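Lab meeting, item 3. Inverse folding demo.
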């Protein structure tokens, strides 16, 4: 037919945020990364995130969005909402013959935004350069809540991912493919509706991550954009204090049809750094151009992959793409 059955289908990337739910499945037909399927749905305003009604909505929505047959298989990699993940950077601790995770927990427990109970805390840590560790933690009950959603929706969860790794995957697989990109340190800026996710990495090597509580909904005037620049400057300073010999060489803005590109230009100018837009939709091709999804919104990006995605306002696909690429 069109090579779909012979292609390698990656897991479905499941990104459930505070405002929407996104499903993306990428694949490879031997000629690079292709888009197999992608769907999104905005959360109804009358449903509170994390509530029982929200869980039921998520289950029904996943079932409906995967029912048309475009997705291949049920294996998936999901991510916790960015607002539910605590992030910290620490020096590599000495375990003293104990479990390293226990030692890490003792170092971060006083900073956790929830009850610091080891039995209710799930920790993931990543070894970085210069004996640094990136620690991510969330409540076990929140993970259990998400696992229940995926089980009832019939998805086979391969793993629970985290947004910093997903964004790093998205960059390295779609935008950092040149040989010259391997050793370049970049700052990835993903501006969503309520948050801005920031990652600093050297290709696949994650070096820094931070969530900024400002998104497109708040970036409605010059003062707000200036505050975002101040937050990004603080990220640069924190990174510089951790890696004194390292230097960020450019910015990558993960774009969406909800992101005002003028904001990206203003931020880059104020930070005085070279920058580029990373449009996920333009970076991949539809696996089957004869099987297009729901017609896109008029404001959607004009890329080859766009017709196969069911577009919604305030959608940024970077995390979902990175999860599928994990």
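The presenter then showed the designed sequence:
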């Amino acid at each position: 037919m069109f090579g779909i059955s012979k292609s390698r289908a990656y897991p479905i990337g499941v990104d459930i945020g505070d405002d929407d739910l996104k499903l993306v499945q990428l694949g490879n037909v031997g000629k690079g990364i292709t888009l197999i399927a992608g769907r999104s749905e905005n959360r109804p305003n009358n449903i509170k995130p994390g509530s029982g009604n929200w869980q039921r909505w998520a289950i029904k929505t996943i079932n409906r969005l995967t029912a048309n047959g475009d997705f291949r298989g049920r294996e998936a990699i999901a991510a916790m909402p960015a607002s539910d993940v605590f992030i910290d950077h620490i020096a590599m601790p000495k375990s003293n013959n104990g479990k390293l995770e226990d030692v890490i927990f003792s170092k971060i427990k006083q900073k956790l935004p929830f009850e610091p109970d080891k039995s209710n805390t799930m920790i993931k840590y990543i070894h970085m350069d210069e004996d640094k560790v990136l620690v991510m933690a969330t409540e076990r009950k929140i993970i259990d809540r998400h696992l229940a959603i995926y089980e009832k929706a019939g998805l086979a969860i391969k793993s629970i991912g985290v947004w910093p790794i997903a964004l790093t995957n998205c960059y390295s697989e779609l935008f950092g493919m040149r040989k010259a990109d391997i050793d370049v340190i970049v700052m990835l800026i993903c501006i969503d509706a309520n948050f801005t996710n920031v990652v600093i990495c050297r290709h696949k090597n994650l070096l820094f991550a931070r969530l900024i509580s400002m998104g497109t909904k708040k970036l409605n005037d010059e003062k707000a954009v200036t505050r975002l620049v101040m937050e990004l400057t603080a990220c640069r300073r924190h990174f510089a204090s951790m890696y004194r010999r390292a230097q960020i060489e450019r910015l990558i803005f993960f774009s969406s049809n909800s992101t005002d590109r003028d904001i990206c230009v203003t931020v880059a100018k104020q930070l005085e750094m070279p920058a580029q837009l990373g449009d996920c939709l333009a970076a991949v091709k539809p696996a089957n151009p004869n099987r297009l999804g729901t017609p896109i919104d008029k404001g959607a990006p004009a890329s080859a992959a766009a017709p196969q995605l069911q577009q919604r306002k305030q959608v940024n696909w970077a995390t979902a793409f990175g999860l599928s690429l994990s």
